[in-house]
Design brief:
single chain, alpha/beta, TIM Barrel, Immunoglobulin-like, eight-stranded parallel beta barrel, 18 strands, catalytic activity, A-amylase/branching_C
Amino acid sequence: MNQHPEWSYGAVLYEMNVRQLTPEGTLRAAAARLEFLRDLGVDAVWLMPIYPIGEKNRKGTLGSYYSIRDYCAVNPELGTMDDFDDFVAEAHRLGMKVLMDWVANHTSRDARWIAGKPASWYERDASGEPAVPWDWTDTAKLDYANRDVWEAQAAAMEFWIARHAVDGFRCDMAMLVPIGFWQYAAARLRRVKPDLFLLAEAEQRNLFDDGVFDACYGWEMHHLLNDVAQQRVRVTALRDWLRADRGRYPRSAMRLAFTSNHDENSWNGSEFARMGAARGIMAAFTFVVPGGLPLIYTGQEVGYDHSFAFFDRDPIPAESYRANAYTEFYRRLTELRHANPALAAGGRGGDMVEISNNAEDCLMTFVREVPGNQVVAVMNLSPYAIETDYYTGIYAGMYTDALTGRPSELRGHVVEPMGPWSYRILTR
């Protein structure tokens, strides 16, 4: 079994959009929010790219975070390298890890490497210009047939680990880069930092070969959560996917589980728009799904219902960033995850043991357990009021309701009404 960094098995991640988190849109202002996130229960902060952004073919007024001019510098709009180091130091002081966003597939079209490195560092179009991947017209595709690109990429990643104490990377569109590169880079970086954490924005099985990545995205699962919320499919489709997914990856593989992230929020709308009344149960599901590594995206911690502009400043107003019922909801979920080893990822937690019920096109009833700890989830993943009927067998007994903190009895034979999108998560 792969050995992940010890902190990661029961972790909750937070994706920080520095540009939009605060009215100032700076690393210094973002650092002032870290204590709020620590109190929320966040274990690691993934920073969206903080590097200088290209100007050639720039989109919008500020450009895409993922069009990078220089891998070893800080975007002056966000602050200085000292501000970045202060951010990392504050996160570490508070007991949180910092993950950087790494974009290995492409650079901006005016990146330092385009002028300063051989033409063979980039794939070229018929006119000899750096190739544009897909419709990303503000970017230039690197050529991984050239091993010098491998070396330069790995050296740039090492720069942030060795000199600036970051704890790992979220690797953008990891499937577009040869797995051989990631194997080379991971081995090199773990010689410098043995407890390095790597998250792939991809779902290919070979990402876990040789223990390269600790976690990958759960895009398929996320799309199913959207589809169930909108009733394009019933919960049976989600259940079928979970059963099939058991054999798809090593048991040690972690899967990023989320109801929102920067792509979903900006291009498809907030979880309020996509999931409506189902957003609460879907968030809870990401905290109890086997193998899941739950993610909170900027603004979700205060219930900010907004789709952020991607290429421009569009910050959360200061008056909207206050602890509220959404904050308490996520705090309860992080406490649930931290307090129950049965929910751990990376092969340490319990498998999903399903309990048969009378409404399997609406209802999911399951247990996750390890010696000394049981978590029972009863989830009506539908917009219908239903009369549930199921037998709990050996799982009957007294529990604690994770979201209210109150004692709750789980009877051997349960017959009870459940409202649309309602759920119970019981622990003991």
